[in-house]
Structure to design on (239 residues):
């Protein structure tokens, strides 16, 4: 795995933060030092618990860094403009990640929403930061109906920008998966043209932290430091 990994989603509320925490926990269990960078945290007031804090709570001893925080739950550019606070720009994200990489084995950069959510009014995005970092991108997707379209669009955008797509992780695998979810296990790697690299069980962020840390590697494929096997996963794409 690269020393910097950019983690994005096919949209909001797909499980980016818990996936970031699982990747961090697996790396920590392997003895690696980990930093988590959240370029823009929205919808959280000063002093409140943000995404980087949640990763630290679940994963353990990580260095967590936020570059900007905006109170309204909006896209970063909009939240910045409405709050009167300075926006985050891709060059700042790349600079911060580079500094963290100098002192850590792994830096996880967790975006806000999807790949092309704007950081600033000039149109800077997480994709631009990934390009400046020359870092691979991990896409977190939902499991059910509709995910094939959003995953393929994200993968195509990454390829059009010549960014490396490491693979796809399902941020919340249902306890009782429906037909669409089961079929998507086989279809997602096809539309993404990239491997499925894990599936996190629904509600796993509510586990006791010791249980989360112990199990994290079993939810992730070896390329993410785990033991998860897509072919052996229950209902591996079968109707």
């Amino acid at each position: 795995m690269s020393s910097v990994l950019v983690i994005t989603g096919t949209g909001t509320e797909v499980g980016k933060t818990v996936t970031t925490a699982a990747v961090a926990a697996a790396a920590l269990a392997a003895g690696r030092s980990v930093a988590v960078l959240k370029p823009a945290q929205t919808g959280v007031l000063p002093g409140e618990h943000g995404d980087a804090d949640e990763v630290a709570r679940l994963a353990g001893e990580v260095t967590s860094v936020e570059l900007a925080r905006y109170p309204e739950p909006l896209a970063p550019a909009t939240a910045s403009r409405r709050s009167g606070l300075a926006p985050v720009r891709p060059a700042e994200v790349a600079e911060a990640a580079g500094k963290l990489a100098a002192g850590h084995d792994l830096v996880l950069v967790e975006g806000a929403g999807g790949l092309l959510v704007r950081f600033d009014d000039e149109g800077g995005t997480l994709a631009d930061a990934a390009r400046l970092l020359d870092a691979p991108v991990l896409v977190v997707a939902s499991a059910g109906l509709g995910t094939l379209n959003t995953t393929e669009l994200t993968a195509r955008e990454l390829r059009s920008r010549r960014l490396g797509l490491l693979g796809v992780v399902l941020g919340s695998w249902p306890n009782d998966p429906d037909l669409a979810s089961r079929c998507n296990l086989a279809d997602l790697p096809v539309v993404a043209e990239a491997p499925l690299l894990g599936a996190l069980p629904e509600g796993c962020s509510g586990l006791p932290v010791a249980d989360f840390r112990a199990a994290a590697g079993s939810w992730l494929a070896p390329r993410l430091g785990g033991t998860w096997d897509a072919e052996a996963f229950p209902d591996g794409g079968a109707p």
